[in-house]
Amino acid sequence: MLEKADQIFVLLLHWLVSFLPSNWQHVASVVLCVATIVLLYPALFAIAVLLERKGLGRMQNRYGPNRAGPFGILQPVADGIKSLTKEDIVPFRADALVHFMAPLVLVVAVFMGFAVMPMGRNMVLVDLDASLLFFFAMGASTELSIFMAGWSSRNKYSLLGAMRAVAQMISYEVPLLLSSVVIVMMTGSLSLVKIVEAQNHYSWGLPHWYVFTPWGLAGFVMFVIASMAETNRSPFDLPEGESEIVAGYFTEYSGFKFALFFLGEYVGMFGIAGLGTTLFLGGWSAPFAFLGWVPSWIWFFAKVMAWICFFIWVRGTMPRLRQDQLMNFAWKFVLPMTLVNLMVAALWRFMGEGLLRWAVCSVIVVVAYAAMGRVEMRRGHLGPRSYRYAE
Amino acid sequence: MSFAFYVVAALTLAGGLAAVLLKNLVHCALALTVAFAGLALLFLQLDAQFVGFVQILVYIGAVAILVVFAILLTRGSETPKSSEIFSRTWLAGLVVAAAVFAVLGWAVLQAAPGLPYATVAPMVTVQEIGAALMGRYVLPLEIVALLLTAALIGAVIVAMHEKEGAR
Amino acid sequence: MLGEGLLKGLAETARNFAGSYVSKERLTTVQYPEERVAPIEAARVFPFLVYDGADWEAGLRCVACQICEKECPPKCIYIEKSKDKKPDYVGKPQIYPARFDIDVSVCMSCQICVEVCPFEAIKMDTEFELATQDRFGGLLHDRKQLAKSNEYFHAIHPTEAAEVDARLDEEKAKVEAKAKAAAEAAAAKAAAGAAPAAPPAAKPAEKPAGGGE
Asked: Which of A129, A159, A192 to mutate to test the interface with B (most CBs of B within 10 A)?
């Protein structure tokens, strides 16, 4: 029974497909899976937007939206209707074709990433040999769509936003990749399915998630930072800094295209959260051995939503960085930390089992973090900000 | 040669042609990206997943962006005023292009004498590629790594020098 | 160590988040249509015309002098003078506004019309729910919509209204005293028996003032 609950979607798919003639079954199952993904994530997007607005409100001691429906739960529906019925304005001087293509490219690239995401036991659309690489390749393509949006609008704020976005995403892609390389080193595979399976065993009831190792924890922290920057989330939301450049690269977008950008941004967030969950938090595996009976997909989506909640929490807390602070942080702190972490992971790999490697690796990570933080803070690249006001 | 191959090949060629023929530089860069994407699809069609994904990651994710940045930060993205289709050095360009084409064509012909052969492409897993890079091809890999590191340090030095000069 | 501040910040927002569910006094939001903040006395939104007595049309203080119309920076006031005259609060016959329109969408709540009015006839209202679904007619308020009683004025701006009333009473007293003096003088003159023909037009005009009091 519990097995069935775990595999419910897989069984459902097989049952639905079995009605079709056998040469149609493969195509039908692919179409069904894709349709599920394309419908599921916008639904999650609606939930996340509501969570974000309510959560941010509560952090600022407000109620948040509470008018549309009971407790405001219909707010995403209202937002959706609003953006669908709004006029779609294309600026007179804009490059119409590129302006039209940009949101499509973004949404397509962002949704492609889910093709390789293991969302539960046996619940992966394509089990590629190099699925991690595929995900990063898709993530890299979103940069181009952002540039297209900013450039084609013929608006200085759009262009500034696009330049900021692209510079930031390129800078943070390096630590993002390097912090996940540790996982590949340890698992010996680029396949996300294999990575989850490597983490899905327990000792004394506790899971072998990579986040519970010194290199895993350091990689996790760096991954979280880089993923926030990669999805243009606060405090790295310079590309759309409302107080500086209106709305950044989608200033000139309205109506449905704006909604697509919004959707693309959130689905990208789910993607990177799902990837982080898969790499560091054991994917769909249960956090304790005795909770193994809960269906695996529940764990995956719970972890993704927890990750989103953390993003919201950070957004409610941190002020936006300045461009130079952003770059300093990426190149002078996060990148060296990930490089140190690579070495730590290699050490871990070759030191064999035992407490010694725990001690050595933890010490190296902590010392590197503290020393680098100290140096950067003394130089004024990081740490508390000082403000100068005009006299 | 399947139907998909012709579609992808047409896309790639169209992207490449557009990259050469379009007037707006940014349009050219975007068309080049289409050509890159088509190339990646061709790789994927040949079951070379790793190369295909790396093609997307490196060429679309980094090189295309670099090109775009270079255009935006140097000459400006506006269409040039002059209405001449050919540049002044078209003859030299033609000669260079013909030379490159000749060399490539010669290399291809040398490598595969009976070009349209119909053997099954060998499935190469990522693991095998990694093993080959770390085993048989470790020396070239190390040389490339050294070269890239040198380039990286050079870039840092150039940037630092400029900063000091500005102050 | 690096990151301490971030953790402190996260703890603070977490405290706010949890606290907003526990203690009501953290939530400063007023749920507007159902709950309302008590009106602030000094609030000003949009001008209205003050009238005395029960009948708004008869009691309008405005004499259509058109000073406010001329002074209005965005020119949102439109006044048409009447052809006939009617007595004002001191009984002096005055023309009155046959039309007095203010466009809500143009008015910028600067209060200049109030400051220039010599008759204390136009004052600022605190009513702010002026939205309408008719964006052409509905936003143009005519004199009937603008007229509000002096009691209403007292209710929304008690201090200012009291000052205005005091000033008006003083003025009225002055006018009455003057009228009385004039009457006495006339009576004295009549008693002296010298002149029979005082201007007859002025006297009936002054009489209702006394009678009205």
From this structure: A129
Q: Who contacts C136 (Cβ-Cβ below 8 Å, separation ≥6)? A: none
Query: Rounded distance, CA B12 to CA B56, Å?
Result: 14
State yes or no: pLDDT of A245 exceeds 60. yes
Specify which residues C87 forms β-bridges with.
Answer: C93
CA distance C202 to B107: 120
Say what the alpha-carbon torsion angle C110, C116, C117, C118 is, to the nearest 10 degrees: 160
Interface mutation target, options A93, A101, A108, A133, chain B, most CBs of B under 10 Å: A133
For B1-79, CATH number out of 3.30.310.50, 3.50.50.60, 1.20.120.1200, 1.10.10.60 equals 1.20.120.1200
SS (H, E, C) C55-76: CHHHHECCCCCCHHHHHCCCCC
Q: Which residue has the higher pLDDT, A112 or B87?
A: A112
Predicted local distance difference test score (pLDDT) of residue C206: 46
A74 within a domain of the structure (yes/no): no
Residue of C nearest to A373 (CA): C2
Q: Is A310 in the C-facing interface, judged by CB distances under 8 Å?
A: no
Q: Which DSSP state fits C77?
A: E
Q: Domain locations in chain B?
A: 1-79, 125-167
CB A159 within 8 A of CB A150: yes
Name the residue among C61, C64, C58, C134 with its Cα closest to residue C103.
C134
Least confidently predicted of A73-82, A316-325, C189-198 = C189-198
Give me the CATH topology for the region C46-157.
Alpha-Beta Plaits (3.30.70)
> A136 to chain B, minimum CA–CA distance in Å?
7
Which candidate, A243, A272, A85, places its Cα nearest to that of A173? A272
Number of separate domains in chain A: 1
CB of B30 within 8 Å of a chain A CB? The answer is yes
Domain span including residue A88: 80-377
Q: What's the gap between Cα C128 and its chain centre?
A: 15
Amino acid type, B5: F
C23 interface with A at CB cutoff 8 Å: no
CA distance A271 to A263: 12
User: Cβ–Cβ of A317/C12 closer than 8 Å?
Assistant: yes
ipTM of the complex model: 0.77
Per DSSP, helices labelled H in chain C are 4-22, 56-59, 67-71, 112-116, 143-146, 150-156, 158-192, 202-212
**Are C31 and A63 a contacting pair at CB < 8 A?**
yes
Q: What distance in Å separates residue A336's CA from the closest CA in chain C?
A: 15
Fill in the amino acid letter for B76.
G
Q: pLDDT per residue over B109-127, tens digit each? A: 887 665 555 555 566 677 7
Of A95, A130, A173, the CB nearest to B49: A130
- B56–A138: do the CB atoms touch at under 8 Å? yes
State the amino acid at position A266 in one-letter form: Y
Query: For residue A42, is it within any domain?
Result: no
* Burial zone of A189 (CB within 10 Å; 0-12 exposed, 13-18 middle, 19+ buried): buried
The token pair at A149 is 């949006």
Asked if B63 and B30 touch (Cβ cutoff 8 Å), the reply is no
Q: Give pLDDT tens digits for A354-387.
A: 788 888 888 888 888 888 888 877 776 666 666 6
Chain B residues closer than 8 Å to A189 by CB: 126-127
Q: Which residues in C lie closer than 8 A to residue A373 (C-beta atoms)?
A: 1-3
Distances (CA, A) of A188 to A46, A343, B3, B70: 37, 16, 36, 37
